[in-house]
């Protein structure tokens, strides 16, 4: 085995020295060592040519380390397959530079078997040719282990990594906490404790994989150094890759009848069978098809550690006699390699454009096959993966071949870690105050990518996959992605509304109805919205140098409509993928889960329950879910563009009904005779009661903020909503409540302000105006006025806070001994919540505030509270 794969062997050193001194076939030598210079000045070193004078097996057969091709096999390893290196089990068990302990197969195998017992290895359903094509089960069971947040997309399926850990004081602390919980809680927390125990056991097994990766990293560095020296000796470009790994894909392979047959003709004893057309490869099957690994950092090394359980645990055994050699291949696992230029790498997409992978295969160089013993490792160094393909074959059944575990360590390119996409999403959210076609396009592409390549990829892998990965790491990242998705969907609706309102304004809908009838408040607001939207679009058009209405449509309206149609097509294809018949053959916990995305009316219904909002495990969108409805919206947006160009209101589509302001309910909405909703605790901003005669309103503020406003120390009160316009310039009582949880009212919907409690009216203020904050910088600039520090729970949170409102305090007054309250002001006996922290106050306790324009909630409550004396007069309630 040392002769075959040991990168520092004497044979290879002699070959490297001879390459610089030989005079035979000088032209050929120059040709095989001269690099290719591609476009942009990048140097690409293609594999050396196989010497034509050396014997090689018949076409369709593999070159192996056996007679009569031993010399040819050695030349292939040092020539066209340079960069393929092997360490056997004995070499790996010995310490090396940077690894003082070595790799011990029994420890690795024990961890792998533990992972198998815990159900971590799973059969996946891939879609090799992309959305809309056939799905297929993998022949192997597998799992991904790696750094936190890493993923690996393979054959159309994104695999999510089990985080590896290095010893894990955190896991140990968790386990200690579990034991204490067991002693303290005999009931009610067993499920939680079991989850923590499972997480700790998984941490122990995955840490073994991490230590294996560290050891292989050190050995990779040694092999790269040797390869670099050999290349320099023949004046070839130096190596460019770095020895590092961030994931490990572990495959568990068995030789089952389901594997694809493979025509495996090799060596002298198979030449006759190859000519006769019969396959005496004796049941050779492939568990992994020909491929070059994708999604990797260019020039990075791939290291594969294999261990076998049962079956044939040895590699090439030259001590066998000729009598037993005929059956020596039975029960072995083989790694096969072939030369295929630009299968991967920086030039792959350009060089293979318009051609298939098979067209890149170099037919003059024979493929090779290597059988390695259990506990060994092989390396595809530097650019080897760029110009070679590999596959895994077996020549036995389940009894003779046993089980093969392969731990493949790779270094991924950027964008395969979930944190990269969360950062992109938060960066996009921070730019919501800006507008423009490029920004809108990047937002829509990001939205589609997050939904298609992350959220749907996670949930299609079933409840078993979710159970294994959710709590150990992926719970919080997926919630963050769902939150970003929700905000991008809301941003999509806002952009569509802006484009539609601009088109309506361009068509003259903001000019009034042409009659002397006074417009309603809603009509005035709609008119103002159209006028503002048209001004925004015209300002945008002037900034990006669009010269006419035709360009406005082609640059703003039509591209956005096309992006909506693309997302509709994506969702339609994902719907077909989730219903593919292959899932019927899978266990129930491997079948697709419901994707936690709520659309349109579903969003309002889900929010009404409150649980999803608190948990954050769902994404909410004001847009429709159906691809057909989304396509219809895209068509309507295109019609808005046409109406904008023509200035013709007749071309406008009917109003789209995608707003979530219409909350669905299992029962019809009950309204009173005057049209106001039964729920009196969430009045709209234009509610007539805000301006009713004889009404007094109070604002709840927790300690110490109430005192700061009453004393004038706090000049701006920060809220997440605007002040009802009717309350501007009016006295608002300051209701002081006990300090409690930030953002959560400490009061119920009905107040009792008498009886000596902590809730009381301490003064009043007049709000002169409302200031809207759209950026964190603007919010922080007024810190001395609103007194909200950046680390305060009420502070601006970049990436989360969309906007805030500052209620500017004008006049203010605090009641005290020297300045008593006006008659009845501080003696308010009761109050009822009208909107958020705003209460309508009444002087008598137990009597519901009743403005002149509002009737009682219902007749039953009225009759119950109006107890009459026998003479028919009302009975006054005593306090």
UniProtKB/TrEMBL annotation:
Cellular component, GO, one term: cytoplasm
Residue spans of biased composition, Basic residues class: 177-186, 863-879
Chain residue ranges for the region called Disordered: 1-42, 167-189, 220-240, 263-288, 343-367, 510-530, 603-626, 648-688, 843-879
Basic and acidic residues bias: start-end ranges: 670-684
Gene Ontology MF terms: broad specificity oxidative DNA demethylase activity; metal ion binding; mRNA N6-methyladenosine dioxygenase activity
InterPro entries: AlkB-like_sf, FTO, FTO_C, FTO_C_sf, FTO_cat_dom, PUA-like_sf
Catalytic reactions of this protein: an N(6)-methyladenosine in mRNA + 2-oxoglutarate + O2 = an adenosine in mRNA + formaldehyde + succinate + CO2; N(6)-methyladenosine in U6 snRNA + 2-oxoglutarate + O2 = adenosine in U6 snRNA + formaldehyde + succinate + CO2; a 5'-end (N(7)-methyl 5'-triphosphoguanosine)-(N(6),2'-O-dimethyladenosine) in U6 snRNA + 2-oxoglutarate + O2 = a 5'-end (N(7)-methyl 5'-triphosphoguanosine)-(2'-O-methyladenosine) in U6 snRNA + formaldehyde + succinate + CO2; an N(1)-methyladenosine in tRNA + 2-oxoglutarate + O2 = an adenosine in tRNA + formaldehyde + succinate + CO2
EC number: 1.14.11.53
Domain Alpha-ketoglutarate-dependent dioxygenase FTO catalytic: 70-414
Annotated Polar residues bias: 24-34, 273-288
SMART domains, sorted: FTO_NTD
Keywords annotated in UniProt: Cytoplasm, Dioxygenase, Iron, Metal-binding, Nucleus, Oxidoreductase
Pfam families attached to this UniProt entry: FTO_CTD, FTO_NTD
EC supergroup of this enzyme: oxidoreductase
GO BP: DNA alkylation repair; regulation of multicellular organism growth; RNA repair
UniProt similarity note: Belongs to the fto family.
Subunit structure, as described in the record: Monomer. May also exist as homodimer.
Name of the protein: Alpha-ketoglutarate-dependent dioxygenase FTO
Source organism (scientific name): Pseudo-nitzschia multistriata
């Amino acid at each position: 085995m040392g002769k075959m794969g040991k990168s520092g062997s004497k044979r290879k050193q002699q070959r490297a020295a001879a390459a610089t001194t030989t005079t035979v076939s000088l032209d050929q030598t120059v040709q095989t060592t001269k690099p290719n210079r591609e476009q942009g000045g990048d140097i690409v070193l293609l594999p050396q040519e196989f010497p034509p004078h050396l014997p090689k097996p018949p076409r369709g057969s593999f070159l192996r380390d056996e007679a009569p091709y031993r010399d040819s096999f050695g030349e292939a390893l040092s020539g066209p397959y340079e960069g393929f290196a092997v360490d056997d089990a004995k070499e790996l068990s010995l310490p090396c530079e940077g690894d003082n302990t070595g790799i011990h197969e029994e420890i690795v195998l024990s961890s792998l078997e533990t992972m198998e017992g815990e159900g971590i290895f799973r059969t996946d359903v891939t879609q090799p040719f992309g959305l809309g094509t056939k799905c297929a089960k993998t022949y192997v069971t597998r799992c991904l282990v790696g750094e936190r947040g890493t993923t690996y997309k393979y054959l159309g399926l994104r695999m999510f990594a089990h985080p590896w850990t290095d010893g894990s004081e955190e896991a140990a602390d968790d386990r200690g906490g579990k034991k204490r919980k067991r002693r303290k809680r005999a009931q009610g927390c067993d499920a939680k404790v079991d989850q923590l125990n499972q997480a700790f056991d998984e941490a122990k097994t995955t840490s073994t994989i991490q230590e294996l990766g560290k050891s292989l990293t050190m050995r990779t560095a040694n092999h790269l150094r040797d390869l670099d020296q050999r290349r320099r000796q023949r004046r070839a470009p130096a190596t460019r890759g770095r020895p590092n790994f961030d994931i490990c894909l572990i495959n568990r392979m068995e030789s089952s009848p389901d594997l694809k047959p493979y025509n495996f003709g090799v060596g002298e004893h198979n030449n006759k069978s190859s000519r006769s057309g019969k396959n005496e490869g004796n049941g050779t099957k492939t568990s992994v098809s020909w491929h070059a690994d994708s999604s990797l950092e260019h020039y990075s090394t791939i290291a594969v550690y294999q261990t076998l359980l049962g079956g044939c645990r040895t590699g090439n055994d030259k001590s066998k006699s000729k009598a037993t050699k005929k059956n020596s291949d039975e029960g072995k696992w083989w790694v096969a390699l072939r030369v295929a230029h630009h299968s991967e790498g920086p030039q792959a997409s350009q060089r293979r454009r318009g051609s298939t992978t098979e067209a890149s295969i170099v037919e003059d160089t024979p493929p090779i096959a290597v059988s390695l013993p259990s506990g060994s490792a092989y390396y595809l160094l530097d650019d080897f993966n760029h110009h070679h393909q590999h596959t895994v074959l077996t020549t036995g059944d389940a009894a003779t071949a046993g089980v093969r575990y392969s731990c493949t360590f790779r270094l991924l390119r950027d964008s395969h870690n979930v944190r990269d996409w969360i950062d992109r999403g938060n960066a996009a959210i921070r730019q919501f105050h800006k507008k423009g076609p490029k920004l809108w396009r990047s937002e829509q592409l990001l939205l589609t990518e997050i939904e298609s390549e992350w959220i749907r990829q996670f949930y299609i892998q079933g409840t078993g996959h979710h159970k294994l990965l959710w709590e150990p790491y992926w719970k919080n990242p997926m919630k963050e992605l769902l939150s970003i998705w929700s905000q991008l969907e809301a941003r999509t609706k806002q952009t569509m509304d802006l484009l539609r309102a601009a088109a309506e304004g361009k068509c003259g809908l903001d000019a009034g109805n042409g009659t002397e009838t006074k417009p309603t408040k809603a009509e005035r607001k709609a008119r103002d919205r159209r006028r503002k939207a048209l001004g925004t679009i015209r300002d945008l058009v002037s900034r990006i140098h669009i010269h006419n209405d035709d360009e406005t449509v082609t640059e703003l309206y039509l591209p956005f409509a096309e992006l909506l149609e693309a997302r509709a097509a994506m969702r339609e294809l994902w719907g077909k993928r989730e219903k593919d018949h292959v899932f019927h053959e899978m266990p129930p916990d491997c079948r697709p889960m419901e994707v936690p995305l709520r659309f349109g009316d579903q969003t309002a219904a889900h929010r009404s329950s409150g649980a999803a909002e608190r948990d954050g495990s769902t994404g909410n969108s004001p847009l429709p879910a159906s691809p057909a409805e989304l396509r219809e919206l895209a068509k309507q947006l295109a019609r808005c563009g046409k109406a904008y160009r023509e200035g013709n209101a007749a071309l406008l589509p009917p109003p789209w009904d995608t707003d979530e302001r219409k909350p669905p309910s299992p029962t019809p909405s009950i309204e009173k005779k005057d049209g106001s909703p039964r729920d009196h605790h969430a009045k709209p901003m234009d509610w007539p009661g805000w301006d009713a005669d004889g009404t007094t309103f109070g604002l709840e503020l927790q300690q110490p903020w109430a005192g700061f406003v009453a004393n004038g120390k706090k000049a701006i009160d920060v809220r997440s909503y605007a002040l009802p316009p009717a309350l501007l310039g009016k006295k608002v009582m300051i209701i002081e409540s006990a300090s409690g949880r930030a953002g959560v009212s400490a009061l119920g919907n009905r107040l009792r302000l008498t009886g000596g409690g902590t809730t009381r009216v301490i003064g009043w203020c007049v709000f002169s105006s409302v200031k809207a904050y759209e950026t964190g910088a603007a919010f922080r600039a007024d810190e001395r006025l609103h007194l909200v520090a950046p680390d305060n729970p009420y502070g601006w949170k970049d990436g989360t806070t969309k906007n805030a409102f500052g209620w500017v305090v004008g006049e203010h007054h605090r009641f005290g001994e020297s300045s008593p309250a006006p008659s009845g002001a501080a003696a308010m006996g009761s109050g009822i919540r009208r909107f958020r922290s705003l209460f309508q106050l009444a002087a008598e306790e137990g009597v519901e505030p009743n403005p002149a324009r509002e009737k009682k909630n219902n007749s039953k409550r009225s009759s119950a509270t109006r107890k009459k004396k026998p003479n028919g007069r009302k009975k006054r309630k005593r306090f």
